[in-house]
Design a protein that fits this description.
The protein has 16 helices and no strands. It has 400 residues and is mainly α. Helix 2 runs antiparallel to helix 3 and helix 3 crosses helix 13. The radius of gyration is 22 Å and the shape is globular.
Amino acid sequence: MHLGQRVSLLVAMPFSLVMCLALSFTPKVWLLLLLRTAQGLTQGVIAAASSNYVAEVSESHLRGRLIGFTVVGWKSGFLLVYIIGSLDMSWRHIILVCGCVTAIPPFIGLFFLPNSPRWLVTRGRLEEARKALVFFRGPRYDSQPEFDDIVHQFNETTSNNTSFVSQLRQTREQSVLRRLLFLIFLLVLVQFTGMVSILTYVVPIFQASNSRINSYTSAIFVGSIQVAGTIVCLLVVDRLGRKYTIIVPSVICSMSMMTLGVYFYLLNQGVDVSNIGWLPLAAIMIFTALFSAVDLSVSLLRAELLPNSLRAFATSILYIFLYASLFVVIQTFPLMVKTFGEDGVFWIYSVCSLLLVLGVAIFLQETRGLSLEEIDNLFRHGRKHLMQQNDLNLPSQNIP
């Protein structure tokens, strides 16, 4: 809230690198756990600040693709770990490589970028905000109307009060609270669709499936298709919109998890499945490719739906629920397998995907093609008020 997204990243990334270096050489278990805790705190700052920063500096028609690049980077990180993990390298070397790759290049790049113009407006630094907006839009772009919209929206919704107590009070507004609760529902339920468990336990899952394909090779296939699927989604997310890129892939993901559950059910019943040993890899690859669209759209909504003045504060709340649900899913997966069997777990994930479809179909309004200020007005006042206020002839599909 006070440092801004860019400065928060510049502070957190050196700490992240130091933690990785220390983890690579620590000889004590208690110190390893302490450093992992500190690393977790640091990564929480980086995750929240990076998504907010990209959302706030992006133009509305490019926001989906630019935020998507952060998701591509995240997926590429999984693929990097799968590749390194298949080599003859210790976990210490893996942490060292990942620490250098994820901290040094972005830290250098951020030095050449200004702070977010929207965050600068919340701090009353209007001239800096104007210059930052010109930097991001280019000197030939007429950025004055966008700048005026940012200032007007901030003055209208916050009365220039950005204290912690004021922001906490603003989250109780019906419009903001409804969006915040929907995003919490979305983030938590997405973790229970199976993607997190597959990414974390991909090698043990393939080992348990008795597939003839090497488990580590299968993990690399999954990581590769995840990156490729996200890149393909970047090309269509700003054309199809957020709603359809969640609903349609989630239905197919549910079918993939159902199929995987049937395979493990037959395996656990003693049925000979050697002739369909390819099925687990095929089902997981289809699930992974299509879930990339869901993951990308949810990341976009996480950055889009919240007001500018509350984004940093509310995003922190969202990430608390996000990481708490990640922890629960990862820690309970072995227990769930022991209790329900692999088939039961994947069927539960299938049902969660359908619940996600239902929630999005009922509660989500399309945000494609709208600026962050227009999205806020849409959720506060509705479509008619937004079109009247901005005097724009917007296509109906942009604001359903």
